[in-house]
Hints:
Elements: H1 10-17, H2 23-35, H3 37-62, H4 72-76, H5 81-109, H6 113-128, E1 138-139, H7 143-154, E2 169-178, E3 181-189, E4 195-202, E5 208-215, E6 218-225, E7 228-235, H8 238-255
Antiparallel strand pairs: 1-2, 2-3, 3-4, 4-7, 5-6, 6-7
Helix pairs in contact: 1-3, 2-3, 2-6, 3-5, 3-6
Amino acid sequence: MIDRNSPVTEDELHAYVDDEIAADRRGAVEAWLASHPEDAARVAQWRAQADAIRARYGMLASEPVPARFDLDKLARGARSWRAVAAAAVIAAFLAGGVVGWMAHGASAAAPSRFDTFTAQALDAYRVYVVEVRHPVEVTGGERPHLVQWLSKRLDYELRIPELEPSGLKLVGGRLLPGPFGPAAFCMYEGPSGERFTIYYARTDSPQTAMRYRAADRFAAVYWVEHGLAYVVSGPADRERLLNVAQAAYDQIDKGTPQARP
Length: 261
């Protein structure tokens, strides 16, 4: 039985982000993240940074460096996002000089809002979708209270869609730490046990159309509407996920949620 209060080290959190955590410790780490939202937020930010760094500098990090630099170990073993980042800094330095790196490389490596929000939403999905007894803080049977509570905490009139026509029943929701303040997280479940979640967080990003992101066995659909970012996460069945996201979007859009005065 996993002790949910057993200490998890920072090295284990980094190994979890790199997908290199020992199999017998993965459950303990996920249980720890479920009960330690600050660490869960850190892990989400690291994962977003990892995705952005690999996308931007993955090729640079794998390029050979001059023999006069003692970097063989780093170049050969740059599997973790921290090692890739370090190798990328060195490669960019050698290729373009310090000024070029400082002016362009550092800003380019910053994760986009899309990366940040989808990474955090998918991390929350991974942690809570496996929970049997405590997947949410407030159950779907208390929908009015759930809407009122989450709206108050986000200072935004939220709409929690009815997805029964899509074969999904509201399990409930919980409050999470978001990239720029509190985030809301609602979970739905189908008759076969499949689960989908909707993640809500305030943002100053401009309005966007739906964007799809796959991640291992899971995937997410992201959009921004009226100052709120939405991420619908679920199993990596693109057509099914897009249908669920569209059903949620249609109901949310009709209500035109807005910030409270």
